């Protein structure tokens, strides 16, 4: 039995394993196609995150922060205070997310959907695993993997045609991604994840992840996120149509 864990795979995808462990993981991946695919997707997501947020590293430090720098002699005090404030803020955000949505996982939904969009929407040759011409197979396959009957919204009246879909690894299991495209090549993706939390419904929520706009909501045991590089009003119109078709 292999002793390679998910932590090993994630660390390998991040390029942080030592030489001996790296060789063991590579031997494991040579015989485990699903693990190899997961690593490939994680690496693509890492690259997408770098593309989205690395430019921030080159931005100058805001003047208000430079002006607020503490004298060197008092640095330990300010460092401790800043660390405590950061920890309190982080814990507060997590508690808030849990209270509002039922799980921190839900709060991460728009970010994961945006990363998946950033990875696959620009793809020219392989934007999806299964094309729209095999829609019946696509629905059955992804429904089986997520353990829930899925539907593919029809968005032709919104000028969007189905391109197809693919299976992605999520925070707590498989995720489905359906992709649409308009006549100008503008793409929209519907990211569907199964939740481990208690079934519940939420209203639409909006998140702007760099250039990617995301409307997301919870419907029972599933979380949905509609992503695109388009203005908020237009995406809301599409999201409303999607929601109504999923809840006739």
Short description:
47% of the residues lie in helices and 20% in strands. It has 248 residues and is an alpha+beta fold.
Molecular structure report:
The chain is built from 8 helices and 8 strands, in the order ααααααβαβββββββα. With 248 residues, the chain is α+β, with helices and mostly antiparallel strands. 25% of the residues are buried. The chain has helices at 6-13, 19-29, 33-53, 63-67, 75-101, 104-120, 135-146, 232-246; strands at residues 130-131, 161-169, 174-181, 187-194, 200-201, 205-209, 212-220, 222-228. Helices cover 47% and strands 20% of the residues. Strands 1, 2, 3, 4, 5, 6, 7 and 8 form an 8-stranded antiparallel β-sheet that branches. The protein folds into 2 domains: 6-56, no CATH class; 103-246, Phosphorylase Kinase, domain 1, CATH 3.30.200.100.
Keywords:
single chain, about 250 residues, alpha+beta, Phosphorylase Kinase, domain 1, 2 domains, eight-stranded antiparallel β-sheet, globular
Low-confidence stretches: 87-91, 93-103
Please trace the helix and strand order, writing H or E for each element.
HHHHHHEHEEEEEEEH
Write down the overall geometry.
globular
Q: Please, what is the average pLDDT?
A: 79
Q: What is the CATH superfamily of the largest domain?
A: MucB/RseB, C-terminal domain
CATH class descriptor of the largest domain: Alpha Beta
Q: Give the DSSP E fraction (strand runs of 2 or more residues).
A: 15-25%
Number of domains: 2
């Amino acid at each position: 039995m292999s002793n390679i864990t998910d932590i090993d795979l994630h660390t390998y995808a991040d390029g942080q394993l030592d030489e001996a462990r790296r060789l063991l993981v590579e031997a494991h991946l040579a015989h485990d196609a699903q693990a190899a695919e997961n690593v490939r997707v994680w690496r693509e997501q890492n690259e997408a995150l770098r593309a989205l947020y690395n430019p921030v590293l080159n931005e100058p430090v805001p003047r208000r922060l430079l002006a607020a720098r503490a004298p060197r002699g008092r640095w330990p005090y300010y460092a401790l205070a800043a660390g405590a404030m950061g920890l309190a803020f982080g814990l507060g955000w997590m508690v808030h997310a849990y209270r509002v949505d039922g799980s921190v996982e839900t709060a991460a939904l728009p970010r994961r959907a945006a990363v998946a969009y950033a990875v696959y929407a620009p793809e020219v040759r392989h934007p999806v695993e299964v094309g729209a011409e095999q829609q019946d197979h696509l629905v059955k396959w992804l429904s089986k993997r997520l353990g829930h009957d899925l539907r593919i919204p029809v968005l032709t009246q919104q000028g969007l045609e189905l391109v197809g879909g693919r299976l992605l690894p999520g925070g707590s299991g498989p995720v489905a991604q359906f992709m649409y495209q308009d006549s100008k090549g503008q793409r929209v993706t519907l990211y569907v994840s199964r939740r481990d939390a208690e079934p519940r419904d939420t209203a639409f929520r909006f998140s702007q992840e760099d250039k990617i706009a995301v409307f997301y909501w919870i419907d029972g045991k599933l979380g949905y996120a509609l992503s695109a590089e388009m203005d908020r009003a237009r995406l809301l119109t599409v999201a409303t149509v999607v929601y109504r078709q999923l809840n006739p």
